[in-house]
Design a protein that fits this description.
It is a single chain. It contains no helices and ten strands. It has a four-stranded antiparallel β-sheet, with no helix packed on it. A four-stranded antiparallel β-sheet has the order 3-10-7-4, with no helix packed on it.
Length: 101
Amino acid sequence: MYAIIKNGGKQYKVKEGDIICFDKMGLEPKTKVEFKEVLAINDGELKVGTPFVEGAKVEGEVINEGRGKKIIIFKKRRRKDSKLKRGFRRDFTRVKITKIA
């Protein structure tokens, strides 16, 4: 059984017991989270919502919040003496999916 949920403008395929990194939500660890924007759910047969499945929800528990690995963005235009170096670290909230209803 799996579900496709929408959170923060992105779509995630989740199953019970999965650990997913969402964009930062600003929640404390051990907090219960409910996702009501369920786009599709598969429990033997696929149910697709228009745009969301009626009465479906996904429950999870916050494990922790953190920051991802640094990504270096380096742009160079050859023969122009033009360089740009930037770094980026994604803030995330790690959630364990407990129930799909």
